User: Which sequence fits this backbone?
């Protein structure tokens, strides 16, 4: 039986996590490499909100968004030694594409290869790293170790600098990048955290 939404589905709660998680997931894109401000989905409405202007001169080196129906809570926090909890947001994902993509509020079929263990104010804020599933240049990559080190360095630099503000101490740290094996644990933990918080069928209940 075919199904569709009569209205626009909430991108966090109304979209599927992906075809074969944790390897193949959906990525809802909030920011492109061409954006100079930070956009973030408004949790209540599902529309994009201008979260803040970025003070640094760096721009995101990849598509950036989140995996639907995931949540960084207790289980995700437990996977990071120096974190006290998850950050309470959907699990972030960076998606690498050979071709430049300037549009946002799009869905990308992403192939997960690893991640960055980012700690933001003692909260686990992992950044999953993936490639466009059918990308002619990157689609055969299975693990983060196969990506060019310079690309990982750019991602590290961006996340360590995009919240910098004069006169304010840096409270963000990133550990050693991890491969697909640990990314699997993070994604599965985020899916379990989501179900515990919202249930398996969140579209059937009112999301506050």
Assistant:
């Amino acid at each position: 039986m075919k199904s569709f939404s009569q209205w626009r589905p909430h991108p966090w709660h109304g979209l599927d996590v992906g075809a074969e998680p944790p390897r193949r997931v959906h990525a809802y894109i909030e920011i492109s490499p061409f954006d100079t401000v930070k956009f973030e989905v408004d949790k209540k409405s599902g529309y994009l909100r201008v979260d803040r202007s970025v003070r640094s001169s760096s721009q995101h080196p990849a598509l950036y968004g989140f995996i639907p129906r995931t949540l960084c809570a207790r289980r995700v926090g437990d996977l990071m030694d120096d974190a006290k909890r998850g950050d309470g947001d959907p699990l972030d994902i960076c998606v690498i594409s050979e071709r430049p993509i300037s549009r946002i509020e799009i869905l990308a079929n992403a192939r997960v290869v690893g991640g960055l263990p980012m700690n933001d104010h003692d909260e686990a804020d992992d950044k999953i790293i993936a490639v466009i599933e059918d990308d002619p240049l990157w689609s055969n990559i299975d693990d983060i170790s196969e990506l060019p080190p310079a690309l990982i360095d750019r991602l590290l630099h961006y996340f360590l600098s995009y919240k910098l503000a004069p006169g304010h101490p840096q409270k963000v740290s990133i550990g050693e990048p991890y491969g697909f094996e640990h990314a699997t644990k993070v994604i599965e933990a985020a899916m379990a955290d989501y179900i515990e918080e919202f249930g398996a069928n969140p579209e059937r209940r009112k999301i506050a």
User: Anything to note?
Assistant: The helical segments are 74-78, 149-161, 180-198. The first helix runs from residue 74 to 78. Residues 24-198 form a domain with the Inorganic Pyrophosphatase fold (CATH 3.90.80.10). The mean pLDDT is 91.
